[in-house]
Amino acid sequence: MSNTLPDLPYAYDALEPFISKQIMELHHKKHHQTYVNALNAAEQAYAKASTPKERIALQAALKFNGGGHINHSLFWKNLAPASSEGKGNGGALRDGPLKEAILKSFGSLDNLKKEFNATTASIQGSGWGWLGYNPTTKILEVTTTANQDPLLTHVPIIGVDIWEHAFYLQYLNVKVDYLNAIWNVINFDEAEKRFTEAVSGAKL
To answer: What is the pTM of this model?
Structure first.
């Protein structure tokens, strides 16, 4: 079964003023769609491959485009219209198990934001910043992946795209401004759902 571009759970302009309608349209309709198309092509080629050499040659395309599809599908759900703008629940961390885990691991939400932003901003080139649940230590940790690599060492709770296509049209080359702004539209309710599933051992 071929992969398809998921619909956004909100309008393209719903995350303004923090992420512009123009960025959201290009990011979703163009960039994510390209990953989906290329992943489908790579999977079809893999199915037809007749030798180990042909299959090995397709691994990079499967990893890159498959990771791009996985990461972006999570990213859209990880965002929500800003509560500070009276539009939705974005940026609002309610009392509950996720908040307790954040306080346990980082001391405060502000400390998490500072560590996350500093770690993610230091990525060389393109990649993703993650708040992940470590299934071994049972705690939340900040980590990163390069390019479109999916997060495999942790269960992804919050992921932020730091590729330039995610922010450049609005924030130019100032990654820190983008990272500061995106917390206003982080869907902590979705993150808590992922966290509770991770703790219970559900596969994501």
So the answer is: 0.94
Rounded Cα–Cα distance for residues 60 and 149 (Å): 10
**Tens digit of each residue's pLDDT (9 = 90 or more) over 105-125:** 999 999 999 999 999 999 999
* Rounded CA separation 19/11 (Å): 12
Could you tell me the maximum CA-CA distance found in the chain, to the nearest angstrom? 57
The residue among 146, 125, 191, 165 whose CA lies nearest residue 32 is 165
- One DSSP character per residue, 109-120 reads HHHHHHHHHHHH
CB 90 within 8 A of CB 111: no
Half-sphere exposure of residue 89: CA atoms within 13 angstroms, side-chain side? 11
Give the integer Cα–Cα distance in Å for 74 and 71: 5
Taking the C-alpha atoms of residue 98 and residue 141, their distance in angstroms, rounded to an integer, is 13
